Amino acid sequence: MTDCLIIAVDGPAGSGKSSAARGVARRLGLHYLDTGAMYRALTWWMLRQGVPVTSPDAVAGRAGQPDIEVGTDPERPVIAIDGTDVTGPVRTREVSNAVSAVASVPAVRARLVAMQQDIIARICAAGSGIVAEGRDIGTVVAPQAAVKVYLTASETARAQRRSADLAADPGATPTVTQSEQQRRDQADAAQMSMAPDAVQIDSTRLDLAQVISTILDLARQQAGAAWPA
């Protein structure tokens, strides 16, 4: 087991991964990596460039072009593309509806997974640790993680949480229907996997503080030598 504390938080859209992972990172004084924001940033760029995001060949042909910068401060996890801060714009419904198609393209995944692994490696080399969240952190990005969590919730709860996120987007219809949630789950299924050694947490009836506390308790039990002194 590595002495670098890596906490992997995976799960479907609307399960509360981002808020929980950021909260855990704050509590432990660790870095935070939102891998979904990286896919969203590339999707935002594709849309602005007029790339037909439903064409895997078109997306693959442009996937290596933009420069993507990822902040790992849990207090302000900025994501920028070609020098433009897109932390807010990547959360719009337009991007949400297109990101699954972009994320499914092998060239996109190859580039972003390599970036994510490099970020984690650099943070560990510097003697720190990180909480990374996404779809396949525990299986693909950081299978060496000392702590692996698969966070889920009912379809209804996840649709409600995504609706709350969209409330900040004035151009979007704020309500996410259950059928829309099901379509998103189906589109994300190929990229989403639960590591065999992950612990599943159902957050349907838990508030954010309870989810964070549950992950912290699990981390204390499983991290071993990687746990901060």
Please provide a brief summary of the model.
With 229 residues, this protein is α/β, with parallel strands linked by helices. Helix content is 47%, strand content 14%. 41% of the residues are buried.
How much strand?
5-15%
Name the helix and strand elements from N-terminus to C-terminus, one letter apiece: EHEHHEEEHHEHEHHEH
Distance between the termini: 16 Å
Number of distinct helices? 9
- Mean pLDDT comes to 87
Q: Looking at CATH, which topology would you report?
A: Rossmann fold
What is the helix content? Answer: 40-55%
CATH architecture descriptor name? 3-Layer(aba) Sandwich
Structural class: alpha/beta
Task: Kindly describe this structure.
With 229 residues, the protein is an alpha/beta fold. The chain has one domain: P-loop containing nucleotide triphosphate hydrolases (Rossmann fold, 3-Layer(aba) Sandwich). The chain has helices at 17-28, 35-48, 56-62, 93-103, 106-125, 137-141, 155-166, 178-188, 208-222; strands spanning 6-10, 31-34, 68-70, 79-81, 84-85, 130-134, 147-152, 199-202. The strands form 2 sheets. Strands 2-6-1-7-8 form a 5-stranded parallel sheet, sandwiched between helices. A 3-stranded antiparallel sheet has the order 3-4-5, with helices on one face. A hairpin with a 2-residue loop joins strand 4 (79-81) and strand 5.
